[in-house]
Write a structure and sequence with these properties.
This protein is an all-beta fold. The protein has strands at residues 9-18, 24-35, 39-48, 54-63, 69-78, 84-88, 92-95, 102-105, 113-120, 125-133, 138-143, 147-158, 161-163, 174-182, 187-191, 197-203, 209-214, 224-228, 235-237, 244-251, 258-264.
Length: 273
């Protein structure tokens, strides 16, 4: 029998830190409310934080004074001994690729104009305050230390007529491009082939952008791993076998080495979801 949805269930998240040789260096149990209107640990959210810290994200669902669900979120930063450095009670939008700086959206809005705070260092402090007017068809927004990148995709809603819209239509042909923007608001772009879409992995230190392209070629589940550079041809990197589905899990800051997690999908020749 499942417990009532408003029942609070105590839980504990165990964090373990190992050396490169597999030796256990530190461990810590962090109590949290595992069910009901309490805290839950977001999947995969124990990761690298700014300045060599460990980032541990806690989400929470509470009741407001009127009895309605109220979502909250916190970020806990720990040192290599798993001792507290800082706790920030804000919803984490993302971290940057190189320095793992923390990116928080200011307030919550579904509109195109949004404001962001970027925190870096240990303990973290605000380094940038960024306001952006996103295009209506902007997708997969990623921040870097000195700029941002995003995808825009027009869709063919009528024969040979591509339009920009905030709604993604199933089965519609797409024309996408990656747009990179610097702190000074100068921008450059790289167009994809018709039918291709992509996700942005991150912005590298030299201003280039790493991404994973989903190809429209039948039978190529894996797509391509690429680096886009300003005024240069797109560079394709060694990637997983074409029958597999996968994504980049970690990489060096210059992308000279990277690790991917992949699964074999021979029974489904179409693109990975």
């Amino acid at each position: 029998m499942e417990p009532p949805p408003d029942r609070k269930v105590d839980g504990s998240a165990r964090l373990l830190v190992f050396s490169g040789g597999g030796v256990l260096k530190a461990e810590r149990d962090i109590p949290y409310l595992a069910d009901g209107y309490g805290e839950i640990v977001a999947e995969g959210e124990a990761t690298t934080g700014p300045s060599g810290t460990l980032l541990f994200r806690i989400q929470s669902v509470n009741l407001d004074k009127e009895g309605r669900n109220e979502s909250k979120s916190s970020v806990l930063l720990l040192n290599t001994d798993l001792q507290d450095i800082a706790r920030i009670d804000r919803f984490l939008d993302q971290t940057t690729f190189v320095d793992h700086a923390l990116v928080f959206q200011e307030g919550f809005t579904l509109g195109r104009s949004r404001t962001y705070d970027i925190l870096d260092g240990s303990p973290p402090s605000q380094r940038k305050h960024w306001q952006e007017e996103w295009p209506i068809d902007a997708r997969d927004r990623k921040f870097g230390e000195h700029g941002l990148a995003y995808m825009v995709c027009q869709q063919e809603l009528r024969p040979n007529e591509y339009v920009s819209t905030g709604v993604v239509y199933a089965g519609a042909k797409q024309r996408c491009k990656m747009i990179a923007e610097s702190e000074g608001r100068t921008s450059w772009e790289a167009s994809l082939k018709d039918g291709e879409t992509a996700v942005i992995v991150g912005l590298l230190a030299d201003g280039s952008v790493a991404g994973e392209i989903s190809e429209n070629e039948k039978g190529n589940n894996a797509g391509q791993l690429v680096i886009w550079r300003k005024d240069q041809s797109t560079e394709s990197l060694p990637w997983i076998p074409r029958n597999d589905c996968g994504s980049v899990q970690s990489a060096t800051t210059d992308f000279s080495r990277y690790a991917a997690f992949a699964t074999l999908r021979r029974s489904q020749p179409l693109a990975c979801l």
